[in-house]
Write a structure and sequence with these properties.
The protein has 24 helices and 11 strands.
């Protein structure tokens, strides 16, 4: 979420709290599954059917999530849902009949599904605002909640705590935790991108592929959640020891997620998911071959480390797959359907062939996940010519038309030395953002009108290192007489100064930071340019270099061409990525509009 007036660190802490709460409440129920199965004398096939109730409820909750977020925002939706979710946990834990247990799981599942979508929408926005990968860490807090919930619940039940006493404790901790993450503790945010979806929005085909892989991955996690403990029982573990098999899974699962952001930066998303799927298959296979509670625990630990980062990486990849941002909602919804469908499917298979054989489904799923890892391969610069027809072209300035990297670094280092702070945090996030927004993300205590004015004024005087991006002049000349505009996070005065300095100033439409209320990633600037040119947003093409600007263009419902001048192609989530503007040419289209040809 875009931080406005509050520290991005506080935003991150609040979102982490929602993930922690979700994992804790779910795992607190998981700790009671063996006990409830024994107390209510539920056979494996019936238990699988009862557990399906949570899947049904979750689908209902996820279906309602986009409309809920559009109405009240992701932060408020997550907060309200989290409170209700914590208050509902007594229903399945204290259920006295199979029927009541099934109904309780439908209700609990509905709020679980709603919380999953809202917290992941908030997490994706927070990651974009921070300008660095943190999604694995968010999911790490979910795993911590699972570890605390299942191990704490198992231990307390083992020492004699009654189900009622444990339930009261879970509700109290849950309500306390979510109260600390209330919306007032979060920075104000733009609505999540998929909240802007309209009935005409389409979802990028890549999102469907990612959703299928997410289904497999969360199928594996769901199966491990509900059946790891019972697999230990099948090999001789008692009801108080059995949950520790799943605790071994969640311990390595959580630890792996806190390492995930650094691991993926080192070897890449595809390698992590491919190796992870194989580790999951090998781990469960070892558990089955060992045939003992200790062997099950070791195998679950191996599988947990393997599955640790697949889901965060899938959600990160889904966050920018389509203009309306609905890809994240699709992948989250279908993925968590797998999480909830996995346990009953294993249960039905166990009733027919025994639980050890049923767990071969998990082995097969791990292999399938490994084979599907290429779905996470990041976008690369296009290799073949591509044509895009439009009626107007909207350019970002810094990094797109003007190479201002050196000038911006000089300016921000000068400011940091002036106030005595480390320049690196703001250098990591300033690109594509107004100065005041970059300051709010990194040094909110300095995010004052006076500082922003000093930065804007000083920027006009810093011209060292300014130069046009390759191909910019030729492309602007080719667009002469046709609708185009510059939409920048710089002030109008700074934009004109820099464009004149590099010989790219043309009389035409300029939308600067002083023309909008909200800067990028808000779509306000691009929508204002489309209105001024009299061209529908869907017939405009945005040319950008930064993730914040790409998000602004896609949220405006426009096609986006990304130039890989300031960011690696892998970081630019759009179908059209070129090295610079020398790879883009403009001609008159067949209908009198503009035809852009991209050659890589």
């Amino acid at each position: 979420m875009a931080a406005k007036g509050e520290s991005a660190a506080k935003s991150r802490m609040a979102v982490s709290g929602w993930f922690l709460l979700n994992g804790f409440v779910v795992a607190s129920w998981v700790a009671h599954i063996p006990r409830q199965a024994t107390a209510l004398e539920i056979p494996p096939d019936t238990l699988g059917l009862v557990l399906l109730g949570m899947a049904v409820g979750s689908i209902l909750g996820m279906t309602a999530a986009p409309a809920t977020i559009r109405r009240i925002g992701a932060d408020r939706a997550a907060w309200i849902t989290g409170i209700i979710f914590a208050l509902l946990i007594p229903l399945p834990i204290l259920a006295g009949s199979i029927t009541f247990l099934g109904v309780s799981l439908v209700v609990l599942g509905a709020f679980h599904g709603l919380l999953d979508v809202t917290m992941n929408a908030a997490a994706a926005q927070c990651e974009r605002a921070l300008g660095r990968p943190v999604m694995s860490a968010f999911h790490g807090w979910f795993s911590v909640g699972m570890v605390v919930g299942v191990t704490g619940g198992s231990a307390l039940l083992a020492v004699g705590l009654t189900p009622v006493e444990h339930t009261v404790l879970v509700v109290g901790i849950g309500v306390l935790l979510v109260s600390m993450c209330r919306p007032a503790a979060l920075p104000q945010s733009d609505a999540p991108s998929f909240a802007h979806a309209t009935p005409r929005d389409t979802i990028n085909h890549r999102a469907y592929t990612l959703a299928a892989i997410a289904f497999v991955c969360l199928f594996l996690e769901g199966a491990m959640a509900d059946w790891a403990g019972l697999l230990a029982v099948a090999f001789g573990a008692g009801p108080t020891v059995a949950p520790l098999a799943y605790a071994a899974f969640t311990a390595t699962w959580a630890g792996g997620r806190f390492l995930g952001d650094r691991l993926t930066a080192s070897v890449g998303d595809v390698v992590i998911v491919r190796a992870g799927g194989l580790l999951a298959a090998v781990g469960v296979g070892l558990a089955l071959l060992a045939g003992s509670p200790v062997g099950v625990a070791i195998g679950c630990a191996v599988a947990g480390f393997g599955l640790a980062n697949a889901v965060p990486l899938l959600f990160r990849a889904a966050a920018g797959t389509d203009p309306a941002g609905r890809g994240l909602a699709l992948v989250t919804g279908i993925g968590y359907t797998g999480f909830l469908v996995g346990p009953p499917l294993v249960g039905f298979t166990a009733a027919a062939a025994g639980l050890p054989r049923a767990m071969l489904l998990v082995v097969a799923g791990g292999v399938l996940l490994s084979l599907g890892a290429n779905a996470l391969r990041r976008r690369k610069v296009i290799a073949a010519p591509t044509q895009i027809d439009c009626r107007a072209v909207l350019f970002d300035m810094d990094g797109t038309l003007v190479d201002s990297t050196v000038a911006c670094e000089v300016l921000w280092r000068e400011w940091a030395a002036r106030v005595g702070v480390d320049p690196d945090p703001i250098l990591a996030v300033h690109h594509g953002r107004r100065p005041e927004e970059a300051l709010r993300l990194t040094y909110p205590e300095h995010a004052t009108p006076e500082t922003a004015e000093w930065v804007q004024t000083r920027q006009i005087g810093v011209k060292d290192g300014l130069k046009p991006v390759a191909g910019a002049e030729a492309l602007l000349d080719a667009l002469a007489g046709r609708p185009w505009a510059v939409v920048t996070s710089a002030s109008r005065a700074l934009a004109e100064s820099r464009l004149r300095a590099v010989g790219l100033w043309r009389e035409g439409l300029l939308i600067g930071a002083d023309d909008v209320i909200e800067g990028k990633p808000s779509p306000e600037g691009y929508l204002a340019a489309a209105r001024a040119l009299g061209v529908p947003p869907g017939e405009c093409v945005v040319v950008e270099d930064a993730p914040a600007g790409i998000e602004a263009g896609t949220r405006a419902g426009m096609a986006v061409i990304a130039v890989a001048t300031t960011h690696a192609p892998a970081a630019l989530e759009t179908p059209h990525v070129v090295r610079d503007l020398a790879a883009v040419s403009a001609t008159l289209g067949h209908t009198g509009g503009i035809r852009l040809v991209l050659v890589g």
